[in-house]
Amino acid sequence: MRKIERAPLPTLLNSDKLIKLLSSKELSNLFNLIDEKYYYWDKVKYQELPEGVSHEDIWTIVKLRRMGTPFKINFGKYNFYWNVGSRLQGLLHFLDMNIGGSLESSSIVSYGDKNRYLISSIMEEAIASSQIEGAITTRKKAKEMLRKKVKPKTKSEQMIVNNYISIQHIIEKKNEILTKEKLFYLHKLVTYNTLSSQDEEGFLRTDNDINVVDTTDGSIVHHPPDYVELDFLLNDLIKFFNEDDPDLFIHPLVKAIVIHFMIGFIHPFNDGNGRTARALFYWYLLKKQYWLTEYLSISRLILRSKAQYARAYQYSEIDDNDLTYFLSYNLRAMKLAFDELREYIKRKNEEKKQISNLLGVDGINYKQTQILEWYIHEPTLLLTIKEVETRLGISNASARIDLKQLVEKGYLEVRNINKRTIGFIKTNKLDTARKKGKNTLEKFEIKNQSIVQQSLF
After folding, report:
1. Among the ranges 206-215, 355-364, 441-450, which has the highest mean pLDDT value?
2. How confident is the model at residue 177 (pLDDT cuts 50, 70, 90)?
3. Exposure b/e, 359-371, CB count within 10 A at least 16 = b
4. How sure is the predictor about 374, in pLDDT bands with cuts at 50, 70 and 90?
5. CATH classification of 361-456, choosing from 1.10.10.2840, 3.30.2010.30, 3.20.20.100, 1.10.10.10?
6. What pLDDT sits at residue 455?
7. CA 197, CA 188: separation in Å to the nearest integer?
8. Which residues constitute the signal peptide according to the record (predicted)?
9. I need a labelling partner for 7 at 20 to 30 A (CA). Which of 110, 222, 277, 448 fits?
10. What is the pLDDT of residue 413?
11. Does 72-343 match 361-456 in CATH topology?
12. 119 Cβ partners below 8 Å, 6+ apart?
C-alpha cells in the first residue's frame, strides 16, 4: 500500500479572509460534505473551488473546524481527538438499537438457535482474525478442524485455534476488569506457538526494532513509541478501559474502537498486536452489554477490506492523530456485520422451515432437526459424537442421546471409523421422508394458492 501524502500545514489566514470563507454560502455545502464524508487532504485537494480560493485555504478551515471538538484524550505524551458528525451519530444510534442493551431480542437470535449461532460466529471470527494476520487456509477446512477438535498441524491452524480459545476466554471473563496480567495472558493465548520464540508470548517488546511496514515496497508506515514508554502507555490504556471519565462521556462503541486503535499504535508486543487489539475490542463491547457482539464477525468484514482497514489507521496517525477515520471505518464495518448476521439468520430460518416441511418427520426434537439438516445440505457427511457436541454446544451425553434416537428411528446408521470412534451417516429413509414431505408441501401450496385466488374475486 502506498504511503499517504502528508497534508500541508494550515495557512495563516487574516481575519477578513477567515470570516469570508466561513460565511460563504457557496462553500458551506462543501465544508459539510468534507466533514460528513470525513475527507483527508488527498481528496480535499481535488474538490472544485470558486476563483480566488485555494485548496490549502479550505484545508485550513477544515482543520480548524475539526480540532474544535470536545473529544480529546491523552495516552502518555501522545494527544488524540475525534469528531462525531451526524453520519457517525446515526451509526451509533443504529448499533445501540440493534446490538446493545440488557434485554436480548429474540427477534434476531431465537432462544433455540443461540448456541448454534454463537459457536458458528466464534469460529468465523477466529478464522477471519487469523487470516487478516496471514493465516493460509479455507474457511471450510478451518471450521472442520475446530468442529472435530483436530490438533493444529501448521502455524495458520494454530493461529485459528488460539483465536477460538481466546474468544471463549473473553466471553467467560467479560465482566472482569482489565489488568496488565490479564492483557499479557490474552496475548499469550492468541500467540501460543505462533511466534519466533515462546519467550515473546505474553511479554512486552524490549527494543525499538519493530516497525509497521508496507508489504509491497517495505516502506515504514508506522514507527511505534519507544519501548521505555510501554508501561506508562499501557497504564493509561488500562485505566481508559476500566474507568469512565465523569467529565466527558465517551460512547462505549467509540471507546472500544479507540482501544482497538491504541494497541495498534502502541504496538506493545513483538507480534500478535492486531489479534490482541481485536480481542480487546470484543471484550470491551461485551463488558458494556453489547450482547449481540458475540454473534457478529467483525473480522470477516475487515478481511474483505484489509486495505481500507490499514488506510484508516494511516489516515488517523498522519492527520495529527485524528481517530475519526478509524472510527468511521469500524462503525461501518459493524453495521455491515449486523446486516449480514440478520440476512444470514433470516435465510437459515427460511431453510429450517422448508426442511421441517420437506422432512415431514414427526417425533424428533429441535436438535435432531438441526442434525438432519446438515445431512440434507451435505449428503456424504460422516458425523462423530464429538463433532455434534461442538456444533450444537451441548454435552457429550446429550449428543449421544440425540444420535442414538435418530438411529433408532432409522434416519441415521452407525459406521466404525476406528476401534475407538464411531460415525453416523444418513440412510435412505431420510431421502424418502424428504421426498414425501416435499410432495405434501407442494400440494399444500397449490391448495393454499387456490384459496387465496378465490378470496380475491
Report:
1. 206-215
2. very high
3. bbbeebeebbebb
4. confident
5. 1.10.10.10
6. 33
7. 12
8. none
9. 277
10. 92
11. no
12. 390, 391, 392, 393
Number of neighbouring beta carbons within 10 Å of residue 445: 11
Binding residues for ATP: 271-278
Average pLDDT over residues 97-114: 60
CATH number of 72-343: 1.10.3290.10
Global confidence as pTM: 0.80
Position 362 confidence tier, pLDDT thresholds 50, 70, 90: low
Q: How far apart are CA 436 and CA 106, in angstroms?
A: 32
Residue labelled with grid coordinates 482497538: 260
Distances, alpha carbon 386 to alpha carbons 105, 113, 144, 146, in Å? 30, 19, 12, 11
| Residue spans per domain, the chain | 15-66, 72-343, 361-456
Of the candidates 93, 169, 251, 267, the residue annotated as catalytic is: 267
> Considering only 227-236, 331-340, 343-352, 389-398, which range has the smallest mean pLDDT?
343-352
Distance (Å, whole) CA 450 – CA 65 = 64
pLDDT range class, residue 110, cuts 50, 70, 90: low
CB 253 within 8 A of CB 93: no
Strand partners, 80: 73
**267 classed as catalytic:** yes
Nearest alpha-carbon partner for 348 in 375, 371, 379, 370: 370
Please give, one letter per residue, the 3-state secondary structure of the chain: CCCCCCCCCCCCCCHHHHHHHHHCHHHHHHHHHHHHHCCCHHHHCCCCCCCCCCHHHHHHHHHHHHCCCCCEEEECCEEEECCCCHHHHHHHHHHHHHHCCCCCCCCCCCHHHHHHHHHHHHHHHHHHHHHHCCCCCCHHHHHHHHHHCCCCCCHHHHHHHHHHHHHHHHHHHCCCCCCHHHHHHHHHHHHCCCCCCHHHCCCCCCCCCCCEECCCCCCEEECCCCHHHHHHHHHHHHHHHHCCCCCCCCCHHHHHHHHHHHHHHHCCCCCCHHHHHHHHHHHHHHHCCCHHHHHCCHHHHHHHCHHHHHHHHHHHHHCCCECHHHHHHHHHHHHHHHHHHHHHHHHHHHHHHHHHHHHCCCCCCHHHHHHHHHHHHCCCCCEEHHHHHHHHCCCHHHHHHHHHHHHHCCCEEEEECCCCCEEEEECHHHHHHHHHHHHHHHHHHHHHHHHHHHHHC
Q: With contact defined as beta carbons under 8 Å apart, do 55 and 34 qualify?
A: no
